[in-house]
Write a structure and sequence with these properties.
This protein is α/β, with parallel strands linked by helices. The chain has helices at residues 2-5, 20-30, 36-47, 49-56, 73-80, 92-105, 147-161, 177-183, 190-206, 265-274, and strands spanning 10-11, 61-65, 84-89, 110-111, 114-115, 133-137, 166-172, 215-222, 227-234, 238-242, 245-249, 254-261, 277-284, 290-297. The strands form three sheets. Strands 2, 3, 4, 5, 6, 7, 13 and 14 form an eight-stranded mixed β-sheet that branches. Strands 1-12-9-8 form a four-stranded mixed β-sheet. Strands 10-11 form a two-stranded antiparallel sheet. Bound molecules: S-adenosyl-L-homocysteine and N,N-dimethyl-L-histidine.
């Protein structure tokens, strides 16, 4: 986290949002009226379940990256009846909570959680040879990676699923920028709290001296780059200490905390192809705001 504060454009990777409080705030974001992606993806998953089931097959192994509360996964678990479910998440506390609930709800299911960072090579414990692997990456978390990182991630999962495997990826689509703007600038200020929680986390875990009243949430759609950018803006000229390091902020200077890329269907199909996959199925919600791609080996 500290290294990014020494860059010319200060930046902190979004994976650090998800401490216990950050995970809870993200779950609140998912219920906000302005934040359409969760509702759209849930609705399209529900209405396309039979076709998703045929595409993925039953009794295989389901691996989910960035599983969070495993909300949409419940629909898949009931339909696909996998022999094993491997939720992977960097947020260990939220992952443990989710696993405890899943074990109560799905007593027949083997759950093998992996607390780890999917931006680094991760080993998934081996499982019965001959079982089809399905990798699930919902929620448009792929949008938080740069297109280059997303391509490398797809290549890694392509290696994991093998020639018969499948991947399901949830992708937020390009749309009217006013809808995007509202989704990341909600009226209740939950997204602002989620963003500012990064500074509270640095204060708590790294001995930082950030004064949260002197920073503000700032999110906008960068149309040329096709992404929402989230920043924390310094409201004054100030210095902040983090452990033994001192960082100077000019008034108006920002810390870039997240990108959330939005794709067209064609753009995502070519990204998938660059990652070694062919987009074989496409499911959309009725407003065509969000897409679930069914990928297979190219
Ligand atoms: N899949 C859920 C949650 C999406 S939020 C949904 O669709 O609603 C993104 C999730 O990815 C969070 O739970 C966060 O902790 C996790 N995450 C973000 N970056 C990660 C990384 N580098 N490695 C592992 N998990 C990560
Ligand atoms: C997890 N990720 C896909 C969310 C997004 O929309 O990019 C994180 C988020 N950031 C602000 N609101 C939600």
């Amino acid at each position: 986290m500290i290294a990014g504060l020494a860059l010319k454009q200060k930046a902190i990777p979004p994976k650090y949002f998800y401490d216990a409080r950050g995970s809870r705030l993200f779950e609140r974001i998912c219920r906000l009226p302005e934040y359409y992606p969760t509702r759209a993806e849930l609705a399209l998953t529900r209405s396309s379940l039979p076709a998703i089931g045929r595409f993925c097959g039953r009794q295989g192994e389901l691996i989910e990256y960035g599983s969070g509360s495993s909300l949409k996964t419940r629909l898949l678990l009931r339909r696909l009846r996998p022999a094993r479910y491997v939720p992977v998440d960097i947020a260990a506390a939220a992952l443990a909570r989710a696993v405890a609930r899943l074990e109560r709800e799905f007593p027949w299911l083997e759950v093998r959680a992996v607390a780890g960072d999917f931006s680094r090579p991760l080993s998934i414990p081996a499982f019965g040879a001959g079982r089809r692997r399905v990798v699930y990456f919902p929620g448009s978390t792929i949008g938080n990676l740069t297109p280059e990182e997303a391509q490398a991630f797809l290549r890694m999962t392509r290696g994991q699923v093998g020639p018969r495997g499948r991947m399901l990826v949830g992708v937020d689509l390009k749309k009217d920028s006013r809808i995007l703007h509202a989704a990341y600038n909600d009226a209740q200020g939950v997204t602002a709290r989620f963003n500012l929680n990064l500074l509270a986390r640095i204060n708590r875990e790294l001995g930082g001296s950030f004064d949260l009243r002197r920073f503000a949430h700032y999110a906008f759609y960068n149309a040329p780059l096709g992404r929402i950018e989230m920043h924390l803006v310094s409201l004054a000229r100030q210095q902040v200490d983090v452990g033994a390091h001192r960082f100077a902020f000019a008034a108006g200077e920002t810390i870039h905390t997240e990108n959330s890329y939005k794709y067209s269907v064609a753009e995502f199909e070519s990204l998938a192809a660059a990652g070694g996959f062919a987009a074989r199925r496409l499911w959309l919600d009725r407003r065509e705001q969000f897409a679930l791609f069914g990928l297979g080996a190219a």
